[in-house]
Design a protein that fits this description.
With 183 residues, the protein is α/β, with parallel strands linked by helices. It is 20% helix and 28% strand.
């Protein structure tokens, strides 16, 4: 029996993102993000119910400032007291886990989609999904970009505007493009 495009995606295999089932899931996420971004400012710890229900897990006191955008939502897990500032984007084609008390500055982008290197395959919507994992007590400065498959260890700091292309060890401080260790 052939796997669906969603099943291929969930296994980390190459899949076609132009699939109708995946498009319907993205439409659901767009609607939830729109609702979240247009509701009156919530009390601390609240988010639009449709967005919270979409996520795999939302820890106590997690807060997402508006606007916020995600690809699917169902692959996102937020630990307790996680804070995402305004303008964050999480392209969660694979699991995205953000540990307790981690903070993402404004405009931080987390990408899981790894597009095919062959132009014809890319044009046909072929990609694969690689998870992004952020440990506990991590601080990611505004405008940083975390690429597919990256793990950021507990207590790490990523400088504003950095492009994180490789894993970051626990307690490390990185910055730049590509992000490199700093004292």
């Amino acid at each position: 029996m052939a796997l669906s495009e969603r099943e291929k995606r969930d296994r980390g295999a190459w899949y076609c993102c132009l699939d109708p089932e995946l498009e319907a899931l993205r439409d659901q996420a767009r609607a939830a993000c729109f609702q979240h971004s247009t509701m009156p400012p919530p009390e601390r710890g609240a988010m639009a119910p449709s967005l919270a229900d979409l996520f795999a897990n939302v820890g106590d006191d997690a807060l997402l400032e508006a606007p916020f955008h995600c690809a699917y939502g169902h692959n996102i897990s937020l630990g307790a007291a996680v804070y995402l500032n305004a303008g964050c984007v999480v392209l969660d084609t694979a699991p995205v886990r953000i540990g307790a008390r981690s903070m993402l500055g404004p405009g931080v982008h987390l990408y899981c989609a790894d597009h095919h290197r062959d132009a014809a395959q890319r044009a046909a919507g072929i990609e694969r999904a690689l998870p992004v994992t952020i440990g506990e007590d991590v601080w990611i400065g505004g405008g940083a970009i975390v690429l597919p498959g990256v793990r950021i260890g507990d207590g790490a700091i990523v400088g504003a505007g950095s492009v994180v292309t490789r894993d970051v060890p626990s307690g490390a401080r990185v910055m730049g493009n590509p992000a490199r260790a700093r004292d």
